Structure formats: C-alpha cells, structure tokens
Amino acid sequence: MTGLLAFEVPTQVLLSGAMQGLAIGVMAVGMILVYRSCRVLNFALGELGALCAALFVRFVINWHWSFYAALPLMILVGALLGALLELVIVRRLYRAPRVALLVATIGAAQLLLFLQYVLPDLERYAAFPTAFTQQWVVLDDVIVRADHVIAAVVFPLLVGGLSWFLNRTRTGIAVRAAADNSDAARLSAIPVKRTSTIVWALAGALASVATILSAPLSGANVASTAQLGPGFLIRTLAAAVIASMASLPIALAAGLGLGVLEAVVFYNNPTDPGLIDGVLLGIVLVAVLVLSMRNRGLGIRERFSFAPRVRPIPPSLQHVWWVRHHTRIAGGVALLAALALPYLVTTSSRHFLYARVILMALVALSLTVLTGWTGQLSLGQFALVGLGGMSTYSLVQHRVAFPVAMVLAVLITAAAALLVGAPALRMRGLFLAVTTLALAVAAPWLLSRPIFLDEDHLSPLLRRPTIGGVSLESQRSYYYFCLGLLVLAIVVVARVRRSGLGRSLLAVRDNELAAAAVGISPARTKLFAFGLSGALAGLAGSALVGLLEQFSPDGFLATDSLIIVAIAVVGGLASITGAILGALFVVGLPAFFPDSPQVALLTSGAGVLILLLYFPGGFIQILFNVRDLALARLAAREPDRAVDRPVEPEPTAARMRLAERAAVPADLAHALRAQGVEVCFGHRVVVAGIDLDVAPGEVVGLIGANGAGKSTFMNAIGGYLPSSGVIEVAGRQVQDMSAARRARLGLGRTFQDAALFADLTVRETVQVALEDRARARFATVALGLPHAKRIERAKQARADDILDLLGLGAYASRFISELSTGMRRVVELACLIATDARVLCLDEPTAGIAQREAESFGPLLLQIRDELGASMLVIEHDMPLVMSLSDRIYCLETGRVIAAGTPAEVRHDPLVIASYLGTDDRAIARSNA
Fold first, then answer.
1. Domains (range + CATH), the chain
2. Which has more pLDDT, 520 or 592?
C-alpha cells in the first residue's frame, strides 16, 4: 500500500482502476472515431456495447456457447449495429445540423436499451463470464485475475492495431482523409459515405469488446448489463475531451488515468460515491478550458439552426389584419384553451401533470435561447433547474419570502450558467455539451451539499405560499401560477428575439467572424445567452419545487436533461412555439393519455428517432409548411398591392444618435500600420515580420499566389488570429484588442466566402451592423419600454436608407442564404457603411462572381471609400481590378513582402513576375492599369 496526498492507494486498487480505465480509453477511441467522421457525439455507443454484453451472456448462459466463440460473434454484432446506425441515422440526417444527429443518437440509445429488456430471460444468475478462472498472487498481496490479464493485453493491442490500420493501410488513410476534410476527400475519389460506415462499424466493435471485457472488472453479474452503458458515457467523454477529440493513444492514457482516479477516490470515500462525479466535472471543465486556449483564432462554423425560417407575409396580404396578426391570434386562442383546461378536467392529479408540462416547456424555452439561437448545446439544463429549485428551498428555509427567494434563485442560476459556460466560450456547441453533461451527472451530488440541504432534512418539504392574498395551495391555483410564469417568459423571450439582442444571438450562431467584423462580441453575446438561459431554467426550478412540494436532490437526473433536449428538438429548436409543441408531445401526451401503450411508444426514444428521421426540423417544420402553403393560396386570390414603407419626415433623436461616430484625426500619417507582424501555426511561420502601412484615403492592394499568407495577414490585422508585432488603427495600437473591439474603432472587414448570417434577412443583417451604434439593453427590451421601440425603429429606418443607397431595397426581406454571391458581397458593403468603418480590409471582394459584376465592383468600392472617407486594404486576384483601384501594392511570397510600390513598379518587378505574374507577356499586359 502506498500513500498519496493523504489518500491511501493500495496496489490492488491501482490495478483494478487501471484495467477499468483501459476499457474507458477504448470506448473513448470509438467516440473519437465517430466524432472525427461526422462531428457528432455518439450517445448510443454505451448502450450499443451494453446490448452486445446482454446478448453475450445469453449465448454463454442460456445457449451454452464458449467464451471464445461468443466473443468474436458479439464483436461482429457490435460492428453490424454500428454500421446499421450509420446507414439508418447518419445517412438520413447527413445534411442536418449536428445537434439533430446527436439527439437522434440519444433516441437510438433508448431504443437499444429497450431491446435489452425484450431479450429472453436468463436461465440462471452468476458472475459475468470471463475467458478463464485462474488468478495469481504477486507482490505478496496483489491478486491478478484473468480479467486483469485480458484487459492489460487486449485493450492496448486494440488501440495499437487501430492506429496501425488508420496510418498504414489505404482504407485507414482514406478514413482519416474523409474525417479531416470530406469535400477534399470526395475530390480525391474517396468514397466518404463508405468510410463513414466503416468508422461507425469500428466504433461499434470497440464498444462491444470494451463493455464485455470490462464487465468482470466492475464486478457486474449477468443481470446487470443494462447498467453498463450509462456508466461509461461521461467517463468516455471525459477521456475523449482530454485527448482533444483527436489522439487515440492519449485517449487510452486518459481513460487509464480516469480509471485509477475513480478507484482511489472511491476507496478513500466509500460513503460518498457521488464525489467522483464532482471530480469528473472539474476535470472536464479544465480539459475544455485547455482546449479553448489551444483553439484560439479562427473556428469551424457549424449550422445549428434547422427550424424552417418564418417567411414574410406576401405583400398582397399585408393589408389583411388577421393575416398580419395571425401569430398573436393563435397564441391568444392557445392561452384561452390553457385557461379553460382546469375547468374541463377537474381532477387535481391532472392539474399537477399539466403544470409539469408547462414547466418542461419553460425549461425547453431556455434551450431555444442557448442552443437554437446561439448554437451552444447544453445537456445539463436540468442541473440548472435543480440548482434553481434547491436554492429556492434553502432560501425559504432561511425565512426568505417565496417570491423573493424565486428572484434570488433565478440570479444564482444565471450566475452558475455563466460559470459553466465560460470555459467553452471559444468552442462550438458539442464541447459545451460534454461540459454540461458532466454537470448533469454531478448534479445530485452537488445539490445535496450542506449549503442546500441540512443533515436533518434529507427529504425536503416546501409548502406552497400565499402571494398577494392568493393561496397557491390547490393544484388548480398552482397550475395557473406556472402558466403565468410561462406566458411571462414567452413575452420576454419574444421581445428579445425581435430586438438587436436576438439578431446578435443569431448572427454569432451563424458566423462568429462576420459578427465580430461588425463590432458584435461573440464572447459577450454568448455570455448573455448563457445567463438568460440559466435564468429561465432557474425560474422553472423554483416553480418545480413548489409543484412537487416533497422532493429530493436525487430527482434532478442527467436523463431529465436529455429529455429536455429531446423536447426542444422535437418541437423545433429555434422556435418559441416549438418548445411548447415539444413539451406537449414528449411530456403532455403521456399526461393526457397515461394508460395508452401506443402513446408511450410514440413519445419514447423510438418515436423521437422516427420523427427526426422524417422531420428533422420538428413539429414546427410541419406547422410552418402548412402556414406557408395556406398563405400562398390566399395570396394567389388577391391582386398585388404596392406596400409603401413609411417615411419619417424628421429624424428622431435616436436616429440622429445612430449617425454619431468618433471622428478620425485628420492629421494622421497612417490610417493603418503594421510593423513586424508575425503569425505562427505551431512551429510553422506563416507570416514572417511584415511591415505595411495605409495612408488616410489611400487604396493599397495586396497580391500574391495562393498560400502566400495574404488572408492570414489580414486575419491578424483584424484580430482573428493571434500574432506578434505592432498593429495601429487610426493611431491606436490594437494588437491586444479583440476583433470586435477593433471593428468598433473603425476597422471594417469582408471575407472570401461572403457567408454573412444565413438565417437573417438582408435588412436584419444591416441592423446587426448598426447594433454597436445603438445597443439594445435587456431591461428596456424585456419591459417593452418606449425607448427600446424608438431605437428599433431608428435602426430599421437607417438600414432601409443604406439598402436604398446600394439598390438593395427590393431584397430587404430576403434571407442571406437565398442571395447570389454577388448580392451577398453588396450586402457586406452595406454593413461596412452601417458600421461607418474608416479602414476597410477587403478579402477578394470579387471572388465567386461573374466577370461583368466584377467590372462594376471597382467603381462601387471607390464610391463607398469616398462616402465613408475611408482607407482600403484589398486582397484581389483580378489584376486589372486591383491595378486600377490601388494607389500602392504589396506583393507577398511565403509570408514575406517581396515588392512594394506603385502598380507600375510592382507589375514590372522581376520578383513579382517570377513569383506571381509569370513570364507570359499577355498576362503581364493584362495587368496594365
């Protein structure tokens, strides 16, 4: 026995923990393979392995197969099940956002769990089968069993063999190529879909062998296979995150370390088994924080919104009042039905169930804000619900009035949400999912701490209060109380969505880089979403403990968090109405029809999986399709009517404030200056000490071959990549500032893809660019104050003015994703005007557009330069355009400046000719301005 930091660490415990940890590592390898293949966390992996283990014991116990014959068969079954999941789920949802695919794997996991329960009964109960029964005593007191030997030999060999397969075989290299860049792999004639099936089959085989061989290590018997799947999940994810979702050997080593840690913690704290869940939460938080620090700079955009967009009302119907207000009318009818329901069904137990449906809708609404609008997937919302509930209980126990306790609990939960979300600010939603899942698993342990629960009150009891003279003791009155909270939350969230706050959330979700380029801070916007989402979850938790009255911290389980995700996705993740529809389907139908097995099956994981396969947008997709069809038919019967936009005769005070901007000093020598700017990717130097300056009003071109470092240098100027050196904008050093802060100082930026914000309209996109000049404040927006409405009207009027200036007025209600590349580039220029940028950094402004459109871009760019009184730095491969635009030109090669001067000087420079223009006289002549 050894000692470590006051812990007793017996060698036997180390051995058992290490072997169990190897199994965790193998499962993590399977998780990493799937993630790298299709960017999703496979939540069905644990239950897939558990089903194979359950089949394995039937073959050995019931049908008397030998261990050595049953094991390879189950590995084959695991591979076939993994391939089947890929063929049925991944292929169907290939183009759906990853969150839809993740929820589909949750549904598949529940289906696999159901299959375990319908297997034939066991003939007898015994220890879990193992290869042989011998054991040895080493070091005088350490017992080495057969399962230890098998784990120590098989698991490392599996990972080593898999690494050899991926690195040394043609199929393995194809798998890696398809995982790294599926589009490039297709161009190289690699069958991406087939390699995806191979990856899922490999993951299924690994899950099968890891679960079967680790069952004896954990002391499982033949009847406990159903508990093997969930027990592995969070540990598997923790090991995968520690390995950066990339390295297979590190995943195995991380699993080994986690297994040892869990064994040691449990040995020294046998009376507190939940402690290891708290430790795992801390490990995951640190791992995600480290990952976020490694992944600074440009990130991968993932499409998280998949609810159909709300199409504008056809112009011919805008004069019909009930069409204009059909959403409010439908909401009013639904509210009247909810108000009448307790009088139609008078049973108190039903009132209780209906109130629970309302609160589940409120929790799902918190996911609408965080995941649907911000793209940050949380799998731990019910942990925040529990925090809100236990905080309310603790405050009431300290004689705080119930309404005050609810307000304080909401603030506490919002702060906790900020704390949990902060390490994942620079990561996309799936990494936040791992963090929040760890929180959900640790929630029962965290919520049973003395700060929430006295030792004498292990079963909390919270009496319903009387508020404003109205007693909430009856189930009917408490139902109305919960309904009022939901209506209040819907009003607030709907106002947020219609304001600049809501547009900023969607902008950050769709394109963080473009959002930062117009002065929107992605970090601050995400923190707002975390806080608002946590507040909504805390509000639901405060009401839930009052509804339950008698409850326990163990009642806030991780499975409830997964149910909330299913509710939000089934209803329609980016829709307020979807949260209500999802709650009615997943929780409401069983409440309305408690004795119907058909309803139970429909709302189970299998039903959710089938719904997502055919309607990945959820119920709201069906509702919007019907709405659009009905409006289209009505519009066909009405003559077209010209709808004039109201014009304000005089600008309001708010609109005048939109035009205010800090003036750039007129006597500046440089509008933009870079000195010794260097960018490194690891040990590779991509930009090597570039010096560049742009004078006020000057247009400077930046040319060079692909890979010369032009875009990387411009990203460093904009603050999208970490760099060294000095960068000045309008006389201020900005190298230590974020991209959003540089944009607020007047540094404008466009990008090669001109993607902007797919789910926003053209008008909303320009309004996002105006947001920094007249920010919406949550308090004024939530309360619907006149000041907030005036600001919104002013931003819309200014946006329309800019669109009219560029001839985009007819496209104001079109979604960005519906525009051609050329039109999106004009919208980018409109955003530059909206931000009143003084230094314009344009990255290939004519890329992807027709030659005729490109020819008209030069005068348009100069017009905007004159309109703003700005300077320009332009990357462009169209030589006639860049030569005609530029006052001076810099040419780059391998991250260094090889020539600088007037267009004529650079065009005739021998280094430029050799590096970029070539020796073709016609190509050189074509570049003549």
1. 11-268 (1.10.3470), 317-342+350-630 (1.10.3470), 670-759+815-926 (3.40.50.300)
2. 520
